[in-house]
Design goal:
The protein is α/β, with parallel strands linked by helices. Helices cover about 40% and strands about 15% of the residues. The protein is built from 11 helices and 11 strands. The chain has helices at about 1-15, 45-55, 70-80, 95-100, 125-140, 155-165, 180-195, 230-240, 245-250, 260-275, 320-345, and strands at about 35-40, 60-65, 85-90, 105, 145-150, 175, 205, 215, 280-290, 295-305, 310. The strands form 3 sheets. The chain has a 6-stranded parallel β-sheet, sandwiched between helices. A 3-stranded antiparallel β-sheet has the order 9-10-11. A two-stranded antiparallel sheet has the order 7-8. Helix 5 links the parallel strand 4 and strand 5 (about 145-150). Helix 2 (about 45-55) crosses helix 10, helix 5 (about 125-140) packs parallel to helix 6 (about 155-165) and helix 7 (about 180-195) runs antiparallel to helix 8 (about 230-240). It is globular. Belongs to the LDH/MDH superfamily. MDH type 1 family.
């Protein structure tokens, strides 16, 4: 039973994309050696994310880092009988060892949201953490694909970009804000309302990764449900935008979206690894340096490949409601991006 469960989880990771081409995956025998580093591995997102990445057959080396608690997490997941070798690193003095040779670095480090706390409230704490971690990435694994989970993503991705620019290592194709949880939520909520199997649903989500900057494009959802009213589309949009708050409130002050975020982070990291390994037509939504709008960063569908971002896809046709949402989100997203850039350049 346990073997069947493990295979089911691994299959879910392999088959997470709506594209049938993505359903081809590598066996552990044929997959290249790939090191994945998780920074913040002992935290609420980091622990389940560490588990999910240990289950991924594309990972040969799993490097877990945190300021405390990492040896226990590493020992725990290292007992799982999958391909990757696991090493845990703890403390600032071991950050370089954790990062050396990494192909993909996932950053869930930082403090979580609590009731009544906005993503903006998290800014000063998490911005400082991200700045320090990215300084180390620039030194020890400058060519890694960096998957930013730490909130507020609308600001932490620009912070990372500025840190890498100062270090002379910035490659816009290799820096990603992980907005996959917005896509996961949009798919789930849409499938429930449209009464279609969620496994076949795809919904692009564009913009940013906070509140109204999250814009699900339900007009482009597949399969297209013609039974949804305008009011239901508005409600689905609002629920997708407020998904994080829904979880924070449901946990009554004892946590935020950790399990679903870990799942989403694992899905996006899996897509990055497939791209690096040459799997064709790997497409996911992500917050990246972009010219889709006048803003320097924007989330949209991105084709992933051996160099990270191979192509940034356009927005496609938008409904009138989505056009209004796009206009409404731009000023707020612009402000968040500028806040990150200003923080990074303060010192």
């Amino acid at each position: 039973m346990r073997t069947n469960m493990l295979r089911s989880i691994q299959s879910s990771l392999k088959n997470s994309s709506s594209s049938t081409l993505l359903r081809r995956s590598y066996s552990s025998e044929s997959a290249p050696e790939r090191k994945v580093a998780i920074l913040g591995a002992a935290g609420g997102i980091g622990q389940p994310l560490s588990l999910l990445m240990k289950l991924n057959p594309l990972v040969s080396s799993l490097s877990l880092y945190d300021i405390a608690g990492t040896p226990g997490v590493a020992a725990d997941v290292s007992h799982i009988n999958t391909r990757s070798e696991v090493v845990g690193y703890m403390g600032d003095e071991n950050l370089g060892k954790a990062l050396e040779g990494a192909d993909v670095v996932i950053i869930p480090a930082g403090v979580p949201r609590k009731p009544g706390m906005t993503r903006d409230d998290l800014f000063n704490i998490n911005a400082g953490i991200v700045k320090g971690l990215c300084t180390a990435i620039a030194k020890y694994c400058p060519h890694a694909l960096v998957n930013m989970i730490s909130n507020p993503v609308n600001s932490t991705v620009p912070i990372a970009a500025e840190v890498f620019k100062k270090a002379g290592t910035y490659d816009e194709k290799r820096l990603f804000g992980v907005t996959t949880l917005d896509v996961v939520r949009a798919k789930t909520f849409y499938a429930g309302k449209a009464k279609v199997p969620v496994s076949g649903v795809n919904v692009p989500v564009v913009g940013g990764h906070a509140g109204i900057t999250i814009l699900p494009l339900f007009s482009q959802a597949t399969p297209q449900a013609n039974n949804l009213s305008d009011e239901e589309i508005v409600a689905l949009t609002k629920r997708t935008q407020d998904g994080g708050t829904e979880v924070v409130e449901a946990k009554a002050g004892k946590g935020s979206a950790t399990l679903s975020m870990a799942y989403a982070g694992a899905i996006f990291a899996d897509a990055c690894l497939k791209g690096l390994n040459g799997v064709p037509d790997v497409v996911e939504c992500s917050f990246v340096q972009s010219n889709v709008t006048e803003l320097p960063f924007f989330a949209s569908k991105v084709r992933l490949g051996k160099n990270g971002v191979e192509e940034i896809l356009g927005l496609g046709s938008l409904s009138d409601y989505e056009k209004q949402g796009l206009e409404a989100l731009l000023p707020e997203l612009k402000s968040s991006i500028e806040k990150g850039i200003n923080f990074a350049n303060k010192s």
